[in-house]
Amino acid sequence: MRTFTFVSVVIHGAVLGTVLLLQAFHVGPLPALHDALAFNDVTPVVIKDIPLAPPQRSAVHTDSVTSANAAPIEAPARITPETEHPNDVRPLGGVEGALPGGANSFPEIGGVSGATLPPPPPPAPKTGAPLRLHTGILPPQKIVDVAPVYPPLARASRQEGIVILETVITANGSVESVRVLKGYPLLDGAAIEAVRQWRFTPARLNGEPVPVVMTVTVNFTLK
Question: How many CA atoms lie within 13 A of 38 on its CB side?
Answer without folding.
Answer: 5
